[in-house]
Specification:
Layout: E1 2-5, E2 10-14, E3 20-26, H1 28-45, H2 58-63, H3 67-89, E4 99-104, E5 111-117, E6 123-124, H4 128-140, H5 153-163, E7 165-166, H6 170-190, H7 195-202, H8 206-233, H9 240-248, H10 253-261, H11 263-280
Antiparallel strand pairs: 1-2, 2-3, 3-5, 4-5, 6-7
Length: about 280
């Protein structure tokens, strides 16, 4: 674990888990300026009895304003710029939205918050090509009267992920586990069950369910990172015409609109498919 402090008011800590924690200090004079802007907005929006809308004195508006609300709005104005500055200061390239934890909000003192994020981990692919060749070679042997069977996605991924070395940042795993749990809870509600009923019917406990999702999250993330690394090493790209062809194959106007609005996602899917085709043809 390494820690670095610069002349500016932020500290970076690279944890053994792969997480990066930025501790950022916002000077009080900066806080005051942001707070004054928030107060001006509150005055303009204020609708207090005895005064025309937006015309109540600042003092009266503050008396009718919850101090916590004032803090929250001030933070919303301050955090994005402060976080971006810390990222630039320490020259990091986050691959995930930060998790924010506010440490200190005292009047007259610098405000302090922590932002946890992570960068793209290093992926070492290892000797996957020879092992994939051994797998695909079987499907290339023509046996009269017998249908050729291509290697499955799972078979190929088992090989490349076993050969690859990568340390997955803890926060990525936790975010994926949370997503799985949220999907499960939504499905349970649709079925009209309680969580206890679901766990009882599946003979699972909250701990075993979370452990199951953690293993799945680690595997899914590793597969994605490994395929991305292979596509980078092999210069596998998606051209604009390929995107247009995929969009034009949409089954409905709604699907076409969705694909047009999510071209980056579509490009990622097409690139992954081309990477799989590359593996099959090794």
């Amino acid at each position: 674990m390494t820690e670095k402090k610069t002349e500016k008011k932020s500290i970076i800590k690279r944890e053994d888990s792969g997480n990066i924690v930025l501790t950022v200090e916002i000077p009080w004079n900066t806080v005051q300026k942001a707070q004054d802007s928030v107060i001006d907005r509150l005055v303009q929006r204020a609708n207090i009895q005895g005064f025309r809308p937006g015309k109540a004195p600042k003092k009266v508006v503050l008396e009718h304003t919850d101090p916590q609300k004032l803090q929250e709005e001030t933070l919303r104005d301050l955090l994005p710029a402060a976080y971006s500055e810390a990222v630039r200061e320490h020259d990091i390239r986050p691959m995930a939205n930060p998790q924010i934890h506010v440490d200190k909000l005292e009047s007259g003192q610098p405000w302090v918050f922590k932002a946890t994020t992570c960068e793209m981990p290093e992926v070492r692919l290892g000797d996957y090509k020879d092992k994939i060749k051994s797998l695909t070679a079987k499907s290339k042997i023509v046996v009269p009267g017998k249908e050729q069977k291509e290697p499955s996605f799972d078979e190929m991924m088992e090989i490349v992920t076993k050969e690859a070395k990568v340390r997955i940042p803890q926060m990525l795993v936790e975010q994926e586990v949370d997503r799985f749990l949220a999907q499960t809870l939504d499905e349970i509600k649709r079925l009209g069950l309680t969580l206890e009923q679901y766990l009882s019917s599946t003979k699972k406990t909250p701990e075993t369910l979370k452990q199951e999702y953690t293993l799945k999250a680690e595997n899914d993330i590793k597969v994605e990172l490994v395929l991305q690394k292979i596509s980078e090493d092999e210069n596998i790209t998606v051209e604009d015409k390929e995107l247009e062809e995929a969009i034009n194959k949409a089954k409905s106007p709604e699907e076409k609109t969705y694909l047009e609005q999510n071209r980056y996602m579509l490009a990622s899917i097409l690139r992954q498919q081309k990477t799989l085709d590359f593996l099959k043809n090794i």
